[in-house]
Design goal:
- The protein is α+β, with helices and mostly antiparallel strands.
- It is 26% helix and 31% strand.
- It has helices at 2-27, 162-184; strands spanning 35-39, 45-46, 52-57, 67-73, 81-85, 87-88, 95-99, 107-117, 122-132, 146-149.
Length: 185
Amino acid sequence: MQRLHGLSMRIFLCVCAALLASAVLAGTASAHSHLQSSDPADGAVLSSAPATVSAVFTEETSLTDTKFDVYYAASSDAAQTVVASGKVDVNDRTKVSATLPAGSGDGVYTVKWHTLTEDDNGSLDGTFSFTVGSGQPATSGTGSTTATTNTLPKTGNADSMLPLLGLFGLVLVSGGLALRRRLAH
């Protein structure tokens, strides 16, 4: 009988460990498509305007709901106007690019993007900027991303799940120890 209880305890603890591990791993999944890189890079100062502006994101984005607009201003004090809108590459949906009009001049270019991951409607907005010519340097947009989720719950912020997962693990271990103590008597 004692041997059967020991086996039950081992099975219970293994199941608890597997549940805890799966909860931790599931919590680290990112459901938002973050900016991985851009060309030109954020904050770059170029001698002439590039023909295209492109970006690579960490996940595939929606072909129809992803926005990638390039704004231009003669200086950082001037009003910005949209000079190009980008499209998602249908063959690699992590890439987005916009073609700048011929003769784009010196000034500050700011790209405002919005991505949507279709698997869970997780959305993310952000910007990056670069300067062409001897204009005022572009302001870095690295920290300006905002996550929102349309109709489904937010799943891209794994750090908020850590206290809950720790509590879940503590309850499982406590339950296992209580069961072990009960079976031992």
